[in-house]
TrEMBL record:
Residues 121-276 form the AtPDCT1/2 transmembrane domain. Keywords: Membrane, Transmembrane, Transmembrane helix. This is AtPDCT1/2 transmembrane domain-containing protein. Signal peptide: none annotated. PANTHER family: PHOSPHATIDYLCHOLINE:DIACYLGLYCEROL CHOLINEPHOSPHOTRANSFERASE 1-RELATED (PTHR34674:SF1). It comes from Euplotes crassus. The chain crosses the membrane at residues 81-102, 140-161, 239-259.
Length: 317
């Protein structure tokens, strides 16, 4: 009998300890002797309904504290997210807003024309008519344009032959005119009014005269830009400056005499730059095969430095 009572006492003690541990965890106390300090024995703690209600209240309070901490943590994370990504969010909002404005604001152009309408042609019409009325002035202007084209070609070829270290520009030229040839078979524009591009009686290498419908995109302006980019790549400053002037002059001439539309000039510049950049990323194999270069796209100074390091390494060996 005494052993059975001891077993029951131990069982009651364990039950009390479990309930007390739960209560202490909810209440955040540091020890489990608080009820003894308050003069409560184990049976009172278990049987007292007030303590049970207090435990429920503590559990509810703990749940509220947990929710508050969760909300606080979420607010902190949201603030960090906004601080890091506010600019990206702003860009997305602006893009969506702009798209909605264009779509619903009736800002899409709906003009119907029989022929392409070029504002630059209209702005340069007085100069075009003046050139047509003065054949001498007109022929000198066209001859000067052809001469500038040839000079740009000669300068870039001389610089490339002397200091060239990459097949980038020759391949860019092939890519530029290859894409242009395909597009011209797919898309043909009508001849603009007051177009004039006849032989001025001055010999030239590159220019082709006559009424030709190879408008989109401009090979003249694209070739000028490729010459400029290669001269810049070779650090040929004087030739590059000359090409800047030549490119502007050639573009102005083409628009004045209506050899090209404005879209032809703009697209020619974009495509020339695109071809030059794209070829620069894949030209290493061509340089290895054609020019026997061990490194890609080195400028002359870096090339000399690399060769010097190679020679010093061989000498040490």
């Amino acid at each position: 009998m005494q052993g059975q009572k001891d077993t029951e006492k131990i069982s009651v003690q364990k039950t009390f300890d479990i309930e007390l541990s739960k209560h202490v965890m909810n209440k955040g106390l540091e020890h489990d002797k608080s009820y003894e300090i308050q003069g409560l024995d184990h049976g009172d703690c278990i049987d007292d309904p007030n303590i049970v209600d207090e435990g429920k209240d503590n559990k509810d309070g703990a749940s509220i504290m947990f929710i508050q901490k969760l909300n606080s943590s979420l607010r902190i994370r949201v603030k960090e997210f906004l601080l890091i990504n506010w600019f990206k969010l702003l860009v997305i909002i602006l893009m969506v807003t702009g798209s909605s404005i264009v779509k619903y604001g009736e800002y899409v152009q709906k003009i119907d024309v029989e022929k392409p309408y070029d504002i630059m042609h209209q702005l340069l019409l007085p100069l075009n008519l003046f050139a047509m009325e003065n054949p001498g002035f007109r022929d000198v202007w066209i001859a000067t344009t052809s001469f500038l084209l040839d000079l740009q070609f000669f300068f870039v070829m001389i610089n490339w032959f002397k200091d060239g270290y990459s097949m980038r520009t020759p391949i860019s030229v092939l890519m530029f005119y290859g894409i242009r040839a395909v597009i011209q078979q797919l898309y043909i524009l009508p001849f603009p009014e007051h177009m004039y591009w006849e032989d001025p009686g001055f010999p030239c290498l590159l220019n082709i005269y006559g009424r030709q419908s190879d408008f989109f995109y401009s090979g003249h302006i694209g070739f000028c830009l490729l010459c400029l980019l290669e001269n810049m790549n070779l650090k040929a400053v004087k030739s590059a400056i000359f090409c800047v002037f030549g490119t502007i002059f050639v573009g102005f001439t083409l628009l004045t005499f209506r050899v090209h539309y404005t879209i032809d000039i703009f697209t020619g510049l974009v495509m020339a730059h695109y071809c030059f950049i794209t070829v620069g990323k894949v030209v290493e194999w061509f340089d290895l095969v054609c020019l026997n270069q061990k490194v890609r796209n080195l400028n002359p100074n870096e090339k000399a430095k690399a060769e010097g390091e190679s020679e010093s390494t061989n000498f040490r060996e």
